[in-house]
Write a structure and sequence with these properties.
By secondary structure, this protein is of the alpha+beta class. Helices cover 63% and strands 8% of the residues.
Length: 542
């Protein structure tokens, strides 16, 4: 038998426990950690925790069932997500320079080329082109499938079969990628259409994943969508449009360069023709002979002839002047060379010499008054008069020749001066002509260089097309979905609901301050129970 100590005096500790405020007696106990106590009086056991949870088991079960069911329904109402992957290869682009004689200018690869291509794969412009190529604006399958009912959603729980891909419809279904679809030109789209395209661009970029493979030139383009066929087409179209854009950029640069070179050729050819016409007209206006026609440089030839004649005339004047001066100061006319060389003087002198010999012979026999001697004397006098006249005529002829030579020298000098002026003017004209010819030659050289560069670009463009970006593996039609993670989300929802239910049970137990049994009174107040008052049946019914 147990000892009854209820009428015995209380110990000080028990008395202190009974001397508690009423709020402490009516306060619901706080369950401490394992090994704790209720109000510091009794240790807490695991069954106390289980009692708290068991007391609100229906609340916990209801929360578990409701939350898990709602999450499961939502998960299986969501359409399956399929992923299509296209692998492309991006090789570094090697630019070939222009070859001039023995020098080849070859530019190396650009270190930023790889990162640039990766950024371009995720550009809104590329997404816009894909949207326009596949006509996704008019494709309801791109925005999302119609939500299935509850029964089809729950059927996925018991079936792992793939949802069949929707067959392409004639109108309103999947649109086959059109090769002839024009590239999206921003300047051809209205602001309203661009604003509408922004949401589509964001949606298509949200499902795109660009993942380069380490230590390779391969890039995986992955696209996720609820429609497997559309995911495959979008992944392949992204790669195809990206390659087209790269080739278009390459060809656009080449075409722009070719157009500029063609414009330069036309400009240089026109300038060359103008300079040639200007050169010919200048030569005609200034009477300049063509340099490739020999013997027609008349001015130079005339200048040389006139110079020679002027020098000869000047020499003749000097010679005649010296002879005339010598004849004028000579004491004996017969000492003058011109007189000595004159045939008449020589003939008269010979006659005089013969007559003198004859007279001398006659004087041997006859006197000076002899008629024959007188006749000879008369003839001698006549010859001497003739000789004197001839000497005078020779001197006059020398003076006349000198004057004539001076006039001729003056004429030659004037002619030489005129020819020299003409030659100087022609030299100046030739200098101006040389400047025109130099400009013409420079234009010809520039024309030849540009023409050669045009031919080299045409040959290089025809031999080497931009093929550094290629599709290595086209996307396959996905067979199994990759999401959403239904089982994982349902398990997470179950665990969260369980934790929330347990926490809510402890919270409600903490807030509950009512005593519902004798055990509650004994556990919380530690007072003996004197009696139990049953509640009326009417109240229990109520």
């Amino acid at each position: 038998m147990s000892q009854d100590n209820r009428l015995m005096p209380l110990s000080p500790t028990a008395a202190a426990g009974l001397d508690r405020p009423l709020r402490d007696l009516t306060q619901s106990p706080a369950i401490a950690a394992s090994g704790g106590t209720y109000l510091g009086l009794e240790p807490t056991h695991l069954r106390d925790y289980l009692n708290v949870v068991w007391k609100r088991k229906w609340l916990l079960l209801s929360l578990l069932v409701v939350v898990t069911t709602l999450v499961a329904i939502q998960m299986y109402r969501m359409p399956s997500i399929y992923e299509a992957e296209t692998m492309i290869q991006i090789e570094p682009k090697t630019r070939i320079g222009i070859k001039t004689k023995d020098i080849v200018i070859n530019q190396g690869t650009d270190p930023g080329y790889w990162n640039t291509q990766l950024q371009l794969l995720e550009s809104p412009r590329l997404a816009r082109q894909v949207i326009m190529r596949l006509d996704l604006l008019n494709n309801p399958a791109f925005i999302g499938e119609e939500r299935a009912g509850l029964l089809p959603g729950l059927s996925r729980l018991f079936s792992r079969r793939q949802t069949p891909a929707a067959a392409p419809e004639a109108e309103g279904g999947l649109t086959v990628a059109r090769d002839d679809a024009p590239a999206t030109a921003q300047e051809q789209l209205s602001p309203e259409r661009l604003a509408r395209l922004e949401s589509y661009e964001n949606a298509i970029l949200a499902g795109l994943t660009v993942k380069p493979r380490e230590r390779t030139n391969l890039v995986d383009l992955s696209y996720q969508h609820t429609n497997p066929e559309l995911a495959q087409k979008i992944a392949d179209t992204f790669a195809a449009v990206f390659i087209e854009n790269d080739r278009q950029r390459e060809n656009t640069g080449s075409e722009t360069t070719k157009d500029k070179l063609a414009e330069q050729l036309i400009t240089l050819q026109t300038k060359r023709s103008e300079l040639e016409n200007r050169r010919i007209q200048y030569m005609k206006d200034h009477n300049i002979p063509l340099k490739d026609m020999k013997g027609l440089n008349v001015v130079a030839e005339r200048l040389g002839i006139t110079s020679t004649e002027a020098l000869a005339a000047e020499s003749e004047v000097k010679r005649l002047q010296a002879a005339y001066d010598e004849a004028r100061i000579a004491s004996d006319d017969f000492a003058i060379p011109e007189v000595q060389r004159d045939p008449q003087v020589q003939s008269i002198r010979d006659k005089l010499r013969g007559m003198e010999e004859r007279r001398a012979a006659l004087l041997v026999q006859y006197t000076p008054r002899y008629p024959e001697v007188i006749k000879i004397d008369e003839q001698v006098k006549q010859l001497e008069r003739d000789l004197t006249k001839i000497r005078a005529d020779i001197k006059n002829n020398m003076a006349s020749s000198l004057n004539a030579a001076k006039r001729k020298a003056a004429q030659f000098k004037d002619s030489y001066a005129g020819e020299r002026v003409a030659a100087t003017r022609q030299s100046q004209d030739e200098i101006s002509l040389n400047s025109i010819e130099q400009e013409l030659e420079a234009t010809r050289q520039n024309y030849n260089v540009v023409y050669q560069r045009t031919q080299e670009m045409e040959v290089a463009g025809g031999d080497r097309a931009p093929d550094n970006i290629t599709i290595q593996t086209p996307a396959r039609l996905p067979r199994e979905p990759i999401g959403p993670p239904r089982v994982r989300n349902i398990v997470i929802a179950f665990l969260l609901a369980l934790g929330a239910g347990v926490g809510l049970a402890f919270l409600l137990d903490y807030l509950d301050d009512t005593l519902k049994s004798v055990d509650d009174v004994d556990r919380h107040i530690h007072l003996p129970t004197l009696a139990l008052i049953p509640s009326p049946r009417a109240e229990r019914r109520l």
